[in-house]
């Protein structure tokens, strides 16, 4: 029985299970828990006392002795919908005792095989003994090579605490994220390996917690002793725990939208009832349900974006390709963007034409890249609002958009004010010079759709004191943990996809430190020796309480100054609200880079220009050296 | 004119050039140097005063101004055989001065384009400014993407010295190997990027020098001021320099045998004559020629192996496949191996049969895997030498070898002593039990051709107190720098080749520390619970004076105890001399791992057994985590 309703949210973060011991009477255990409001059982599939080496050997030899109940005790759909298997927790594949190691390997393989036979959606693997778990990882990695659709959830305690060393002098940080990181690196980021996070009563710092949201967490296991008791004797969670739960609820949503069909890909909450009777868990379930239901409903923008979360898209090539009607349609709906443009044009008109000359001076405004006309409309609205007289040239290279533009002008009766020019702005021979040049040529990374090159071409017909809107723009970048994006890029099994930038609505991503500015372009630019090539070395300091982090790539944004104090942008700390025209851009790394605490992360970034194309190259040079991505624009470029 | 003759050596390490300044009269400069005994010129292609930003701009605009002499001053074959180009050394692509950076980029591209136009075999790139040279590397990497066959030699001083820091307190090691390492990582180990090593008057430690022999050194540049003067006033080199020169002479050989057609792939020696007249260099050339000619001629074994140096071969699958006659022929020629076997059998016969019973006791000896009979012969020779009576069973699964075996027995008149059994030893139903079991089933890594599995099967027909020859064997492994092998594996552009072990005559390889034992098998093994699975964690400490190193993979060897003190093996420190049946084995790493000084290198190694195959898995877990290579034997395995 789901936790409740939240508008727009159909995710499985609403499901809640119970962790139990092995139960001889599975049907009874299941029905009593389902009737108490839980959705699934997390339980051992095998009567869990340790099988001795001898019994395993005899088992292997006889190949007859049953080691678990029959698969007939539940129906196939009960097994797959309501049971998550739990591998015997005594196994220790990294023990110094060779016999125990070999027994553990046999048991692990046997239990996973049995779970596959039952078509379970997921199996919980016991927590690793620590960061040294190569033999455990090797064995799991072998199983992953031949597994059906089942997910393996590695149980990891959520912990980052100082541990006193034996000598009592030094102390050592026990960071369980590093256990996970070792394990998944050994298993090459396998897509069926994910995390069941054991939430303990004390939580690490916020920065440290943040890392996990870039990782494939599928379940959170909350022990009853992590709860507090409120004044009325009911269980509740600390504020920090509540915030973490909100995070889990939010992050499951993405998995739903991406992989609705796979149960194991959803985030589950589980209550752990080790050692206490089952009914007493009901108040805990009610409390978790209350937390879920009290969350804000999804906003309109969130609902629009939900289907795009963590979905990689190739950036547009608006210069080489003509946009389709559908694309214009979508972008034109972004009212926030055009109202910012209208404000900027208004301010420019006020500056250009004093009140006393409002009726005599006609300002020449050219919209370069007019598309189907939204900036023409915004400019005319600005003229009306400020009482200034305007002459508009609408320059557009896409002949299909020109058709619509003509019909718009006719419909609105703008024939006397607006001149439509069907031409590439870089080649247009303008009949007069402009006071104001308005354009919307920015990509997610600012200059990545070649706004600099286009405006360089258009600048010819701007008056020496003319204004460009936007007047400048800057790209920003920050390192992120994004295991989902990394796996998606890696699934193509080539270098090209690792050397491509993607437009993506970032969601299951950990932003590891504040973004930094990369390249700035200013318009108009009258300097004699100008080049649109750029080179920038960036040095990121990740907050020291975060712990080690894994960098899968870099998230890019832009911020543009339209005119004076009117800006437009998607850089997270200054983003224009309620704007949906741009998602972030993602630059992947071919080999993810692990940054230890206190180490700076050095990124080098180039914007390169050739005669027919523009491209970026990037590399990491600290704490270790990556290769240079995309040399010569071999994998990804934007055509001129 | 080559330096002289050395038996068996046809390499270009015999060629010696002169580094000069730009010369207006190229034909004269070339002819006067060739007549002095040199083979080529290393010289600038452009009159090297720095072009100002302005002149470059005007150049680009006019596209007419000549910046170098005509290509007609030399013939095409003179350009390509006798000239190595030298890029202007003033360029600084990592300067803080943006203008200088941009000028440098233009100049570098222009000069490389000119050198390509002249079809030069190689161009020398100026030394990087230090370990931070990302923009230089980015620019070179772009050039490498579209280069013809020309090699680019990066000039690197051979230096690893302590440098006092600004503050006078700390000091910092200036290790130029790290400059090279940064550069080539940024350029992804590009195969056309190699090293011209500037040999200075003082040399780093032996361990530190050793690293360079795993790198693509194509030229060594020796300054005249690195020479000493002997009693008679002639130039000579220090003992340590002489040893280094021997190393260079030896290492060029490999490149010759592999890539004879490409001049740029050879090692050249160059004398630097900056600032002094030309004729005075002749005594230096004579001295270098003397060093070359006094080297020992290549041994017979070296001449046999020369064609196999650094050439990767798939290991044999002798159990699944039948060996061909040619393979038997080659291995049977290894007299050293069989004389060791004969010694071992002799000792076993002495132990088994006291002198007084020599004429009454007949020892039953079974050769399992008899092939075409070399071990039968060695055993009979041992019997004769010791005066013991022998009954031999020669068991062989390859029906083709059986044919030859029958003819051998007939030819030698061994019919009464030798019984031939055409059968797989694992399935043979022996008529009696053996005193001695002799086999040669070892691969380069000991157990990698499944000797353990075969002998487990054959052990049934060994008497309880019987002897197995070999009685045990151990595999050994050590980390290596091997950029040539890494590039060859990488050229396949798939994972399979990175998860395969190769048999290879290691040559251009730096062995970074002593090898360590991995797995040991002992025969006979009468323990009840035995398994041929193995797991080993190894920790290598690289000598701290080495500096940082790059580990491209691991070299594997074996050592076998045939009987008591008679051993056989290829582990470098204990290798049996004059034996050529085995080359080393090489386990690559998908991502080479850089180990900083003082960091241990942890390798984990598994031998895994399935019902139809045996395979290895391996991973590095310190200083960083690799993926587990070859999970489930997906890429490389040996069939049972």
TrEMBL record, chains A, B:
Matches recorded under PROSITE patterns: SAM_MT_PRMT (PS51678)
CDD domains, per the entry: AdoMet_MTases
Residue intervals of the PRMT5 oligomerisation domain: 472-638
Sorted UniProt keywords: Methyltransferase, S-adenosyl-L-methionine, Transferase
Record-listed S-adenosyl-L-methionine binding positions: 328, 337-338, 396, 424-425
GO molecular function: protein-arginine N-methyltransferase activity
UniProt keyword Repressor, yes or no: no
GO biological process, one term: methylation
Record-annotated membrane-spanning stretches: none
Domain of life of the native organism: Eukaryota
A GO cellular-component term linked to this record: nucleus
Domain spans labelled PRMT5 arginine-N-methyltransferase: 300-469
Boundaries of every PRMT5 TIM barrel domain copy: 37-293
Residues at the site labelled Critical for specifying symmetric addition of methyl groups: 331
Active-site residue numbers: 440, 449
Family: Belongs to the class I-like SAM-binding methyltransferase superfamily.
Protein name, UniProt field: Protein arginine N-methyltransferase
Organism from which the protein derives: Stephania yunnanensis
């Amino acid at each position: 029985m789901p936790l409740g309703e939240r508008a727009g949210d159909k995710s499985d973060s609403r499901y809640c299970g119970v962790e139990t011991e092995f139960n001889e009477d599975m049907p009874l255990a299941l029905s009593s828990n389902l009737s108490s409001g839980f959705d699934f059982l997390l339980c051992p599939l095998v009567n869990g006392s340790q099988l001795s080496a001898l019994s395993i050997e005899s088992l292997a030899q006889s190949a007859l002795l049953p080691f678990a109940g029959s698969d007939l005790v539940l129906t196939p759909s009960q097994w797959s919908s309501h049971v998550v298997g739990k591998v015997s927790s005594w196994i220790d594949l990294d023990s110094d005792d060779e016999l125990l190691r070999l027994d553990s390997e046999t048991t692990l393989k046997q239990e996973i095989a049995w779970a596959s036979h039952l078509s379970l959606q997921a199996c919980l693997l016991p927590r690793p003994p620590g960061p040294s778990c190569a033999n455990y990882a090797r064995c799991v990695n072998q199983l992953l090579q031949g597994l059906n659709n089942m997910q393996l959830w590695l149980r990891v305690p959520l912990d980052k605490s100082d541990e006193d060393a034996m000598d009592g002098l030094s102390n050592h940080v026990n960071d369980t994220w590093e256990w996970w990181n070792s394990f998944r690196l050994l298993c090459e980021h396998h897509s069926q390996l994910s995390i069941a996070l054991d939430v303990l009563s004390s939580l690490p710092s916020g920065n440290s917690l943040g890392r996990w949201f870039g990782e494939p967490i599928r379940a959170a296991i909350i022990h009853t002793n992590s709860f507090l008791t409120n004044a009325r004797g009911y269980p509740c969670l600390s504020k920090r725990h509540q915030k973490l739960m909100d995070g889990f609820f939010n992050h499951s949503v993405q998995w739903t939208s991406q992989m609705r069909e796979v149960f194991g890909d959803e985030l589950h909450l589980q209550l752990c009832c080790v050692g206490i009777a089952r009914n007493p868990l009901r108040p805990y379930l009610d409390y978790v349900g209350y937390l879920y239901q009290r969350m804000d409903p999804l906003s309109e923008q969130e609902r629009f974006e939900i289907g795009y979360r963590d979905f990689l898209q190739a950036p547009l090539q608006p210069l080489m390709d003509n946009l389709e009607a559908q694309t214009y349609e979508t972008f034109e709906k972004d009212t926030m963007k055009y109202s910012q443009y209208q404000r900027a044009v208004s301010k420019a008109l006020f500056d250009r034409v004093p009140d006393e000359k409002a009726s005599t001076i006609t300002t020449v405004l050219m919209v370069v890249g007019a598309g189907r006309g939204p900036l023409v409309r915004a400019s005319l609205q600005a003229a009306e609002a400020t009482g200034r007289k305007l002459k508009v040239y609408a320059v557009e290279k896409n002949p299909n958009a020109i058709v619509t533009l003509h019909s718009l002008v006719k419909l609105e009766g703008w024939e006397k004010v607006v001149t439509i020019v069907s031409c590439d702005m870089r080649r247009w021979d303008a009949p007069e010079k402009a006071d104001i040049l308005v354009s919307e040529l920015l990509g997610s990374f600012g200059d990545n759709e070649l706004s600099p090159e286009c405006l360089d071409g258009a600048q010819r017909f701007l008056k020496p004191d003319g204004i460009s809107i936007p007047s400048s723009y800057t790209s920003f970048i920050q390192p992120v943990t994004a295991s989902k994006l990394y796996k998606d890029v890696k699934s193509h099994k080539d270098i090209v996809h690792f050397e491509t930038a993607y437009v993506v609505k970032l969601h299951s991503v950990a932003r590891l430190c504040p973004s930094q500015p990369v390249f700035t372009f200013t318009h108009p630019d009258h300097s004699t020796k100008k080049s649109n090539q750029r080179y920038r070395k960036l040095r990121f300091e990740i907050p020291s309480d975060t712990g080690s982090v894994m960098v899968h790539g870099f998230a890019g944004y832009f911020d543009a100054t339209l005119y004076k104090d009117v800006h437009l942008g998607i850089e997270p700390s200054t983003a224009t609200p309620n704007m949906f025209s741009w998602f972030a851009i993602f630059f992947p790394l071919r080999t993810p880079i692990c940054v230890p605490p206190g180490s700076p992360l050095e990124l080098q970034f180039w914007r390169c220009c050739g005669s027919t194309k523009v491209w970026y190259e990037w590399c990491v040079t600290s704490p270790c050296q990556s290769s240079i991505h995309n040399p010569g624009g071999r994998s990804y470029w934007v055509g001129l």
